[in-house]
Amino acid sequence: MSGLERGGIVTTGRPEELLRGSLPFLSVLLLIGIDLAPLPSPAPTALSPLLCLSAIFYWTVHRPDLLGNTLVLIATVVLDATAGLPLGLTATALFVTRLLLLAPPRFFAGRSFLVLWACFSLAVTVLMTLRWLLASVYFQHLFAFRPVAFELLLTIAAYPLVSLGMARLHPYLPKVAHAAPRG
Amino acid sequence: MKFFSFERLTVLGAAWRAMGERPVLVVCLGLALVVLLLGKLEVKAVHKAADMLGDQVVPLVVLVREPVAWSRDVGEKVGALFAVHAENERLRAENRRLLEWQAQAVRLGVENRSLRTMLDMPEPAPAADWVSARIVADSASPFVHTRLIDIGRSADIAPGMAVMTPAGMIGRVIAVGDRSARILLVTDLNSKVPVIVERSGDQALLTGDNSAEPKLEFLPLNPRFGIGDRVMTSGRGGVLPAGLMIGEISRIEGSRVAVRPAVDWHAVDFVAVLRQAPLPPPASERDGLPFEWREPASALSDLREGALSFDLAPAPAGGG
After folding, report:
1. ipTM of the complex
2. Cβ-based contacts under 8 A for chains A and B
3. N or C: which end of chain B has fewer CB within 10 A?
4. What is chain A's Cα-based Rg?
5. What is the percent of chain B with per-residue pLDDT over 70, rounded to a whole number?
């Protein structure tokens, strides 16, 4: 095969291949757009699930070769910039969570959906708590935890729906040649 | 191989990945931390980057927003069908009330003009020019209360301008990109607006605390206001115009006085940004101007009535 190996994916370097390989990243960007869409709410800021976190977890588990840390960094910076949050807030919380809960890809192989959901619940709880702590330090104000907890519960509840949507993308993704490292 | 090609990108990507997972993760964490710290240190480049990213993301957010807004509208319309009779009655009552107010406003306007003439008072500042904008993104977090709108520097928007809804002021512009701007809501932790209580004339500072009801601070020693009194911008500091409706006092618990914004958060889709009229140059400098100075309000009315016209003949070609 004349194509090059890109982190385990056999790719010919054609734009079409690149586009197929970018689907997970594009799906995360799309969910960021949905997360930020203004929703009707009696309060100034509607609390809603952070769907993009579900997508990031999903692709980290199922196709880590297509959504490496660099793309996650870009996506979370886009989220922070659009939401008006300090740039790097979500990324810092997310990467610290990854460092704390780093599990090899084989840990997730063959696990049932319920186990993955439980893993996501744990990861997102750590992430949102860290994000709340970081925001409190950054703004020098102890924010109430209740809205964060509500946002967390919504995010956990929305995971099955997001994973169902992401699973539909698998037929369009490039084939995996062998187990790939993340990066 | 060209300098920028898919093959080269692929090779670079492979080299980056070859570092292994943990080192790349640590590098990314370091980058995120550095950006976070630079933002905290108020480094301008970080804020500019955020504004620029906001500009780039607006089309994506608008694209996603449309189906969401459409489904919401359909839901609201179906709901409205069931409540059409009650809504009709409510609108009739409101119309009657507004007609009474209109008559009173006209009478007060005439009285105000005659009193100003008798006291030889200067004309009030010209009304601010405004431009409509659509809200395209929420802050989606409990830490900041901001909104992203779809107009920016290209529409002459600048930081500090007041942002209004039909019910009252919602916030002010804090950051501007070319095609987008960020509004800080009056409920945000960092929002501070000089206000006046309409009935008592007490001045205070409306301070957001990320709750739905911001509080009044720096109150006079013996305030005379009560629950239900209306709160408006005082215009102190010169950043915001005076008299913009904000809300009414909803609770007084000891030293905490809460204000409920008049804004119907449920229906905030479009807003108006008040572009303040430019301050006139001092009279002593007007003679030296290369054109005849006109008050913005009078120039605008002349333009509407056709008394002021522009020569739109094409400029002579060549030159330079």
Report:
1. 0.81
2. 204
3. C
4. 17
5. 78
